[in-house]
Amino acid sequence: VYRIAVFASGEGSNFQALAEAADAGKLGKAEIALLVCDKPSAPVVGRAGRLGIPAFLFQPKDYESREAYERVIVEQLEAHGVDLVVLAGYMRLLTPVIVEKFSRRLINIHPSLLPAFPGKDAIRQALAYGVKVSGVTVHFVDEGMDTGPIIAQAAIPIASGETPESFAQAVHAVERELYPEVVSWFAQGRVKLEGRQVTIGE
Ligand code: GAR
């Protein structure tokens, strides 16, 4: 089996979509082996419980540095034999402790067409700017903020009268399809990275 850890801080709709895709056999031989969550009270924790997926929960304030809790996370990832780390609404920057250890095996989903609107609140940023098309990006994670090589993007038109709430729904609907598909490419060993160029093999 190909073992996946999902990092999430909040609602967990992407976590749920990935877990359901795995259960439905849509990720091939992959399984969601672990949830990592920095907010023990987040809704995603209840989802993991209902799905029977082990969770590692921590509070950053209990550690003296980001590196300190990331070293504990790496121990957890190694203990669970994790092959791929999937960030899904994990609202923290990673340090080299995780980024270097999981180089080429660490991806994120972001609710804009990067490099437009990196960082927090991408949906509000896009609507405030007045763009007519935005979307979703899945990318490799490096130490920057949403700067790693792009794996896949999906565009979503912004209708007139769109609100952050209505557009967030459209984004989530696209994410639910796109993220499991990209993860299945990894499970099948089809993703190649050379410099910033990502290609998906047969
Ligand atoms: C998703 O829309 C994801 O793209 C976004 O957080 C949401 C999490 O939703 N991520 C970021 O903004 C990262 N900068 P979820 O908890 O329901 O999966």
Task: Describe this structure as you would to a colleague.
This protein is α/β, with parallel strands linked by helices and 202 residues long. Helices cover 35% and strands 25% of the residues. It has helices spanning 13-23, 43-51, 66-79, 96-99, 122-129, 164-187, and strands at 2-8, 30-37, 55-57, 84-87, 106-110, 133-140, 150-157, 191-194, 197-200. The strands form two sheets. It has a seven-stranded mixed beta sheet with strand order 3-2-1-4-5-6-7, with helices on both faces. Helix 1 (13-23) runs parallel beside helix 2 and helix 1 runs parallel beside helix 6 (164-187). The two termini are 20 Å apart. 36% of the residues are buried. The structure holds glycinamide ribonucleotide. Glycinamide ribonucleotide (GAR) is lined by residues 8, 10-14, 88-89, 109-111, 122, 171, 175.
Instruction: Point out poorly predicted stretches.
Output: none
Helix content: 25-40%
Main beta sheet: strand number and arrangement?
A: 7 strands, mixed
Given the structure, what is the number of helices?
6
The rough form would be described as globular
What key attributes describe this structure?
single chain; 202 residues; alpha/beta; seven-stranded mixed sheet; two-stranded antiparallel sheet; 25% strand; globular; binds glycinamide ribonucleotide
